[in-house]
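Subject: Predicted fold for Peptidyl-prolyl cis-trans isomerase, 124 residues

User T.R. writes:
Posting the sequence so we have a shared reference for the thread.
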Amino acid sequence: MTETNRTRPEIDAPTGPAPETLEVVDLIVGDGAEAQASSVVDVHYLGVSHESGEEFDSSWSRGESIRFPLSRLIAGWQQGIPGMRVGGRRQLSVPPELAYGPAGSGHPLGGQTLIFVIDLLDVA
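User M.O. replies:
I've generated the structure tokens; pasting them so everyone works from the same file.
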């Protein structure tokens, strides 16, 4: 991994309307193993609300990456991470229907478009 991947990312305050579909932007293209839909991924990530620009979650804040089967994560991650390579950094802008559902769904982030910057550390 490059030094860039080992530092906490910054997400600029969003401007304009929230995207209505999943947006995937490679900030750094990795050269390691490629994530598949069936992969278990080890990632560092930062998440902010598109509406407020406020951080709502970050593995960086906890000081350790997370490891999950991709199939157990929100649909935006399930669709946005496959094809990413280890060593890469990707930004996902995830509309509510691919995140935690509409407002009133019972989840505190329901109804919100979320922005994640994800560093892919390993796949299995």
